[in-house]
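User: Batch of two.

Assistant: Item 1 of 2:
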Amino acid sequence: MNSGVGNSPGNVPVYHGSNLKVVDRRVKVAEIVLRYVICGLGVLAAVLVATDTQVKTIFSIQKKAEFTDMKALVFLVIANGIVASYSFIQGLRCVVSILRGSVLFNRALAWAIFSCDQMMAYLTLAAVAAAAQSAVLAERGQTELQWMKICNLYGKFCNQVGEGIVSALLVSLSMVTLAGMSAFNLFRLYGGNKGKNSGRL
């Protein structure tokens, strides 16, 4: 009976054909889930920050806080919008490839996906880092530069921004994980089965 497992000269199990396809399908399903998690969290982060406003009256003058007052928050909204859109499109690609029964792809496509995932991971990391630094300054101020603690005045605004940054951080971590999966998908094409896999779409 042939179960898709052969024996090497050293009697080490060697997996072929159907088992490789099962592994590929599981990896692809995990990728789809992760991409749509990133899409959802990216949209959530962008919406939380972009819709955040608070008005305060200071000495009979109304002051309005909004995300456009801090360039780092504008960058965060744009970055998460880009990553969410990218993840949605890539998720569709994964779904189509599974429905067509072609879960493997060639090296050129694998390199393109790997490169784009890397860029998106760095983009989200940079956006979160910039927003987190601005949030710390808003929360604690900077006495040496006579910068006041903005969050003492705009508590609601800061809380919602904080929620957006947490969502963006989860996007960033998920994107780093996805970049690792892309690296796995790419470099296994250079392994023992590269002859079989390099021509698949």
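Item 2 of 2:
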Amino acid sequence: MTDNPSETGGVANIGVIGLAVMGSNLARNLASREGNTVAVYNRTQARTQELIAEHGDLGFVAAESIDEFVSSLSTPRTAIIMVQAGKGTDAVIEQLAERFEAGDIIVDGGNANFHDTIRRERDLRERGLNFVGAGISGGEEGALRGPSIMPGGSAEAWATLEPILRSIAAVAEGEPCVTHIGTDGAGHFVKMVHNGIEYADMQLIAEAYDLLRRVGGHRVEDLVELFRSWNEGDLQSYLIEITAEVLAQRDADTGRPLVDVILDEAGSKGTGVWTVQNALGLGVPVSGIGEAVFARAVSSKPTQRAAVQRVLRRRPDPVETPEGFEDDVRAALYASKVVAYAQGFDLIVAGAREYGWDVDLGAIARIWRAGCIIRAQFLNRIVDAYQNDPELESLLVDPYFADAVAHGEAAWRRIVALAAASGVPAPGFSSALSYFDSLASERLPAALIQGQRDFFGAHTYRRTDKEGTFHTRWAQDRREVETEPSTH
């Protein structure tokens, strides 16, 4: 180091490392808020120079080296890392850790895997440093104008970060969309689930669009107005809003709706996959999120799709739509969204239990009301649900959501049946309905599955009429014996 940071008297209360679009927008947001002085550093100095050239009036403290960056920070030194997840993040963390002192704070604002965040927080805590994994949602625009922020980490780190993050967060009904989620990896876990719900929500909207076009015969121009009208009621959300905007866009080259010239292969950045993987490990059914991930995977296999299409002799003709078809699609969309959010919150509960986080579900719903991609009017109802009962078993048993699903159930069933009869895939709608029916069924065929498992693997079973664990000696005399529970 060229200087000892403890002796230089740094002037910046917050620093940002990594000045690609997200990082530079976040730095601009921070610098525009009263009380913040922002130090900035990027490994490629040209990006720092570009930010200063365009927005130097915001008063950044620009650093040409990591040592200069650290020296510019006041204590406790607080730096937000906005670099590529993985090894790049680890490298920057180590650079800072070598220079920071006890009580200083390193914040990872990227889309990190929460397991990595748990590891990093533990390692840095042993070195006397605070590490915070902060989920930041809202994309490039949110980073600049106000994101939804989901920080984890220690209470000590939160005491320093709270006024800074509240100053830049989106605001919903007068409340900044940021709260301390919990210790170590809690913030990145909740951000992962947010993104998983986002996958499901987008898939459900896409299925509604597909049914309206392929079965309902609507022109794209008609759907623009329909989605805009939906955005004025209880479906009001950022994703419904931008759906109308995408559908309204015309391709400059062909004059056709842009949606008709975009290749129908959807990409993925991994957080949806992480959500499903972790849900499987925790034993939480997130079928809506899973089907959304799988739908993107199917879309991205054009040669396989083409091969199947070549061997098909005929496809079902679209079924004639009943009166009120559009209202049925809307009801099915709403009911399926309720299921997707219910599954997401179930996963947060399970994660909190597994990793020892004290998570406030109502607070999470509050900070998702603005700034983030899944922001929606609907979230106010979730806030109310958890205020009324913090121990709610499922969103589906909250009176408001139970009534909403009951009101739309008949339409939901009509749409799923109509989609199947017409040969139009609706995995999101279908899986959501199956999940609801599974919870609503007094008895499930799992009894047969458990009998099969006991037959071929002696996995044991429990009975409905008495306590204990049992095994039938299938290959012997078929007598039932009481036994210890199987661990397989």
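The radius of gyration is 26 Å.
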